[in-house]
Amino acid sequence: MRGEDTNWDCGRGFTGRFEKDHFRPGVVPLEATSDMNTNASLIEGMLRRVPQLKALYDEHMTDHDALLPHVFMGDVTRFAIAEAERPGSQASVTALLEHLEDGLKFGRDEVKELIVVSFVENLTGETAAVKALEPLMGQSLKAEFERMCA
């Protein structure tokens, strides 16, 4: 409902209020302001936006006993490649690419490096997947792909 107030908790011990009208094109998403400070926080935000990655994350943690961000991002890239042309998967792939776009726009240098080195660069040679993913990519992600892979 337009203009309706909603309570929110950003997970950092601060609870506030926002009006739904504030979420419109050009407004920085809440995730971008709170989830782009470290690689771990980028991945935590990604798991919230793309719950289909949870099983992949659990397997990663079982295999490695710790979060290895660059290794996990390689797994995420393989997920995106596999899902790129699968019918019914566009919503999860779009959410993933939007989150990575936010990371490139609003993240600290370590977050941007993780995305470029361990996601974008791993798309090299994946012509069919890139053809399906490219229309869903934001401007920053597309520019990094063109810079690294084209």
Overview of the molecule:
The chain is mostly helical and 150 residues long. It has 2 domains: 1-34, no CATH class; 35-149, no CATH class. Helices cover 59% and strands 7% of the residues. β1 (5-9) and β2 (15-19) form a beta hairpin. Mean pLDDT is 80; it is low at 1-33.
Write the layout of secondary structure elements.
Layout (H helix, E strand, L loop, with lengths): L4 E5 L5 E5 L10 H5 L4 H11 L4 H11 L4 H15 L6 H17 L2 H12 L6 H7 L5 H11 L1
Antiparallel strand pairs: 1-2
Helix pairs in contact: 2-5, 4-6, 5-6
Number of helices: 8
Percent range of helical residues: 55-70%
E-strand count: 2
**How are helices and strands ordered from N to C?**
EEHHHHHHHH
State the separation between the terminal residues, measured CA to CA.
44 Å
Strand order of the largest sheet: 1-2
What characterizes the major β-sheet? 2 strands, antiparallel
How many structural domains does the protein architecture include?
A: 2
What coarse outline follows from CA principal-axis ratios?
Answer: globular
Q: On the 0-100 scale, what is the average pLDDT?
A: 80
- Rounded to the nearest angstrom, the radius of gyration is 16 Å
Quaternary structure type: single chain
Which regions are unreliable across 5 or more consecutive residues at pLDDT < 50? 1-33
Beta-strand content bin? 5-15%
Structural class designation: mainly alpha
